[in-house]
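Supplementary Text 2. Reproducibility record for the structural model of the 262-residue chain.

All settings were left at their defaults, and a single model was retained for analysis rather than an ensemble. We include the record here because the model underlies the residue-level annotations in Supplementary Table 4.
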Amino acid sequence: MTSAVMSSPPPRPSSNDDLVSWVILGVMLTLSIVTHLVTAVLLPDQAAARRKNQRVEMEFYEPPPPPPPKVEEPEPPKPVEPPKEKVKPPPVKVAEVKPPPIDAPPPPNEEPPPNASDKPVPLVVGISMSSTAAGGTFAVGVGNTTYGKADTTPTDPSQVKAYRAPKYVPPGGADTQPDLIGDYKPPYPEEARRNEIEGTVVLRVTIDEEGTVTEVKVLRGLGFGLDEASVVAMKKHRFKPATKDGEKVGTTITFNFSWYLE
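Retained model, structure tokens:
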């Protein structure tokens, strides 16, 4: 047996319910419109009020006043020096010349000495080279005693030679140079030997007209006692003197003193 169930359609809303819905919808629209109007009107006023209530601080700076102009003070007047009093020089004393007496006799005339000569008197300079002492119990050395040390032993006047200044020519001015005729080999300095120093000491040597070394100067040395030993040894060397126009002369040469370990 079949049973059938029949469903009934939903009930339609009544007209009263529709009216209430429209009323609610109208109220809500009205409130929304009023709210938008209020917001549109009040917000600009509030923003303006806020802008009015904002505090703005401003500071004004005045430029500094210009410096006062410099007033140049006038220079004080220079003190006027009082005029100097002119000092009169002391009076010059003039010697009084007494006139000769009227009755005084004239002065005698002086006669010239006999055998007077018109030739000038010769001027003598220096020391006589032939002076001797006559008489007494002692003899005096003769010669130029002002040149060097005087000889304590009297010299026979016949053996005295006239003083002659040494002749000297500058380096390279002689016709022949000095020639070594006798050398001296000094001992090797101990300091240079310990350090095994070898080489050449360059010397400037002055040799007189007798061939004797009178002056030695080191131009380029080695040290370690070699320079001093070279100077001492050089003064013991003997030379044949240089010549100029056939005469012996003194001159200066450069000498190389070599040192070598054996």
